Amino acid sequence: MGVTLDADSIEFSVVENIEKRKHIPTADELAREEAIKKKAEKNRGYPDWSYLNPERAYPEFDYIRTGKISIQIAHQYTSAHSLRRNWHERKKTIEDQLDEIVSGMLAYIAAVKTKRLEREEWDRNWKRNGRIRELSENYNARENKRLGFVKQLMEDAQELDSFQSLIDRIETTPPADEKVLRMLHWMKNYASGLKEKLGYPAIAVRLESDNLFPEQDMIVEELQQLNVDPPEFVKEKPARESHGSCGSGNSSAGSWFPSKQWYHK
Prior knowledge:
By secondary structure, the chain is α+β, with helices and mostly antiparallel strands. The protein has helices at 27-42, 98-171, 178-197, 200-210, 218-225, and strands at 2-5, 8-22, 61-73, 86-88. Helix 2 (98-171) packs antiparallel against helix 5 (218-225). The longest helix has 74 residues, at 98-171. The two termini are 44 Å apart.
């Protein structure tokens, strides 16, 4: 049997009380018990395993149905450990305790509801924090891709400047032979390729392909919906470091770790 209130329910049972009493043997039972003892004395000294399950002429206890009932609410895990769950017929009948029983059941259902709401809140927070961590990892991975992309553009720009500077220097010298002219031709073609890579159209195509700077930033928007600011950018640890970097005063090892647990906001 059970009671349901909205989304919460409890189970309860109605049982008849059984009274345990010491058995008072009758004269016939005492006679049979004496006969059993004499038989055991007679068989003493012979292999006998009856002590493992000794024969008795009467039970030690009697279990008597009292006709009185009890109501018991099935246990559920709640924070209210002091709530009453049992009602017995002693000084009062169950009928006389109905108001108390109904109030007790409603109180227990309320405690079950409170625990359910706490559990649901915990589940929501667990899922929320898990999603925030996932978004953080995606955000940080994208920031590292952005950084790598811009650094590659900087390297290409520096290389282009170096090529152009060398081309200009060579062309200001006296006329060169055919080998030098062929080298200059190759260098100009290479520099032209670098210029094309650094132009707006080429950069736009690469940005679109990698989706590094989308018009609608879904990662940041979802973090804002979760009432969380984007995490501090954490640079990826280089794959290899020079041996001299360990003692350098410019080491940025500490910047690889966030300074606060932003995802608990």
